[in-house]
Amino acid sequence: MTETKINRELLKKNAPIGVFDSGVGGLTVVREIMRQIPNEKIIYFGDTARVPYGSKSKDTVTRFSEQIVRFLRTFQVKTIVAACNTVSAYALDVLEKDTDVPIIGVVKPGAKTAMEATKNRRIGVIATEATIGSGIYANYIKALNETVEIYGKACPLLVPLVEEGLLEDPVTDEIARRYLTELIDIDIDTLILGCTHYPLIRSTLGRIMGPEVALVNPAYETARELKEMLGELDLLLDEPPGLGSNQYQFYVSDKADKFMHFANSIIKYGILSAKAINIEEY
Question: Which of 80, 145, 212, 229 gets the highest tally of CB atoms within 10 A of its CB?
Fold first, then answer.
């Protein structure tokens, strides 16, 4: 979070929190925000027309992210959560410089928790090709303790499998097992789920890795950091919005019906609707 750009006069306690992701993965962060700070209003955008981000260039991911931030700012959000590891790796620095509300990503909270969890100082990271290629988790963790060994593994097929709703499917199990075998062989004791889609197949990943490997869910840690930040800025809502206030709003760039069905299977808060918008207009 870049304090110098934040205009505190713009930050209103009753304003919503903006959250965005390349698709449905960011719903794992939304779910944690709902659980940990249930009074808050949320505006969510999922870029379902352009998912996945993990195989795209840094310039493209940054351009997409800037469009989404401009869209979220039309709701006068009091903070923005980039609920996407690829965005956090490629675009967060640019977004922080260009945005006058607090903006946080999902990488730092997960890296910090992994450092606290590891006993043998051998940490694995599974993520998109972009996140692994950026080395961002390794950089953050090495800054905390340079003796820790970090082993990254790109898992490009897991995002489309999750997006298709194949959460407990033999195909997903087989693909995940192929990706994770080499991490099992090198005896890691902590595994960072370095993509917000991955908590949706946490049970599969945990079964493959075994009970001795701690799984770190950055979605949970990000919601916790968000709550702490809002508290420091005196922006936490003291009570829930009144009835009919449309506390949770969901927007996508394509396939709103499919998104709504998937979202309702993940978040048990009754998502009434999702609206498709043309994000290229922003």
Answer: 80
